[in-house]
Amino acid sequence: MTKRFGFTLAEVLITLGIIGVVAAMTIPTLISNTNGAQFKTAYKKALSTLNQAVLMNIAMEDTDLSTLAADTGTDSATFGTNAGSLGLMLKNRMQSATEITGSYETAPTLTEGSGTGATAPKITYTIQCTGNADDGYDLPGTIPGGGTAPQGTQCDQTTGTAEVEKTMDSTPDNYAKFSFADGTSFWYFLDAANCTDSAAVQNNCYGFIDVNGAAGPNTVILCADADNGSCEPSEITDIFPVIFHGQTFEPATASARAVLFGK
Predict the structure, then answer these.
(1) What's the pTM value of the predicted model, to 2 decimals?
(2) Helix, strand or coil for residue 60?
(3) Partners of 99 in the beta sheet?
(4) Ranges under pLDDT 50 in the chain
(5) Measured distance CA(120)–CA(175) in Å, rounded
(6) What residues have CB less than 8 Å from 87, skipping those under 6 apart?
(7) What is the pLDDT of residue 135?
(8) H/E element holding 177?
């Protein structure tokens, strides 16, 4: 009797089915991890590029971000033309900086999360309380950055300071948008002016880095579980909040810091 070696059709189909199930389970995660690594690298590069532009401006003009004037542009043709504005500095120091307000078919939603739970990113900063160590410290009636301190905010009776949050503006029309040669976009709040270390928050010196421009997912990086000012992002996405002052561009939120300084 002749022996035949091989697989039956049923065995081949079962094997292919198993391979298909495993691929369906692992490929999306692999793609997400790959995109996340690319977004992280592009984010670090964009921060470095912006900081180098500031240093170049200091060398050539002897001015930094503390002398910025608000951008008085009213449309895409006039953004970055006002003397002393951040947009003009970018144009002067980065030949590839191009105003791109109209390039997004659908502007990103500048919030963390989605649906009814979405909120605009918040920047944490320190304020000085009134009073003294002998009589105790109290929150001022009006805090730097505007408005009053959120309910539950307390003064540290040792340092005389308190930690408060400022909500970043989430209206795309209030930002000028620039693109660089590598496809990265940078959005800055039009009212940003006199961006010093102590006044960056109240002077609206913040914006967003979009590491792949108009391409998706156009989602702000979000903490999966924020705790004591730190977090692990639930997913590394393509838009990162930044704040700028003096000679520095840096992450503005806990999630953006976690991506920059994490492993």
Answers:
(1) 0.79
(2) helix
(3) 178
(4) 227-229
(5) 14
(6) 71, 73, 79, 80, 81, 99, 176, 178, 188
(7) 92
(8) strand 175-179
